[in-house]
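Duplicate of earlier report; Tol-Pal system protein TolB input re-posted below.
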Amino acid sequence: MNKIFIRGLLALMVWLGSTALQAEGLTIEITKGAEGALPIAVIPFGMQGVNGIDPSQNVGRIVAADLRRSGLFKPLAEKDLLSRPTDGTGVRFADWRLLGADNIVVGRMTPKGGGKFELRFQLFDVTQEKQLAGYSFQVSRTNIRRVAHHISDLIYEKLIGHPGAFSTHIAYISRLGSNEKPTFVLQVADADGFNPQVVLRSSQPLMSPAWSPDATRLAYVTFEKGKASIYMQNIRSGKRDLIASYAGINGAPSFSPDGKRMALTLSKDGNPEIYVVELGSRKLRRLTNHNAIDTEPVWSPDGRMVVFTSDRGGRPQLYKVAARGGKAQRLTFEGKYNARASFSPDGRRLAFVHQVSGDSRFRIAVMEMDSGEIRILTDGSLDESPSIAPNGSMVIYAATERYKAVLSAVSVDGRVQQRLALSEGDVREPAWSPKPMR
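Output:
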């Protein structure tokens, strides 16, 4: 049992002994961008006649920040912009070719009455001098940032070839207060760290947040009643339901792709095993039956299998079992420790915590499901809790820097790296939402 849980316990001990923090959003810093990032001009959007809008809601600046944060784009600095057109008629393509921009984004927001605005944007290919995309949206003051992230997704998909993840959300757990009297907070923020919302506060540790497939609910583990229990909570209403509070371990919840079932780890029969609960009827079905420790289940995107961590081979490794039950098969053979799996949306890759034989570091790796090839993505000493973005491009995970808990993200090819942190204190247990909340 210690072999599987020791790494998580070490990280929790570091976290519990950390300094205090303030409840706030995440600050994202790009620590490594992809070579050959695409140069693009994103013009601050025109806001003529629009009053009372915070500068942080300028759509052009939000879009530029999104694209820059992906590591795949290199937006021109505002001070280098030769002009500030707000629609295609004002774009002088020769000027932008001189600056080396491959593409240009222009747009404007105009009042429509009743607190509504019309938001238009256009994306142009500078070399070919043609429009690649153009959309118009009706927005209110409260959803400007959400629509701006949607525009970033549209641009990303048009130029990169697969969907963006700027409109998604990240759940994470932060620690507030003093070491003697801490408060643990489960929060949800936009993918760029803005707009943090508190889901739950507790004087006892919170762990293992997991999103429902429609991104409207979170499951998590809480110790608020003096023992581990699993709850499911609606993000909007705050209504929550108790899913499991059996004797012993209640941990590692994971929603099925259809949202009707949940895999979890229970030790109610004496040994930690994987169970599946029907969320409608609460009928419980045991999925594994072994004298080793089986934990950390995660569903494949097609719902046909569950991957989990087990030390049945002597050391923690990843195994798979059919969702209907059956004999488990080992997935990982390289390295002395492989745990805490996360599937890519297409089911082609697994991200997980990996330890190489002879190395004390725990790092994030990805494995190609077809070939079994493993690629190490990070170089930290205690990297954990990987969660793959819903477009499959990035992996967010928890890391430890100088005894401080931070979140980091790395692209699945290792070319782009980000650091996500609170200005003070620690944050852990990240979970990337499957798709935008509506």
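Residues 144-160 form the longest helix (17 residues).

Merging into the original ticket.
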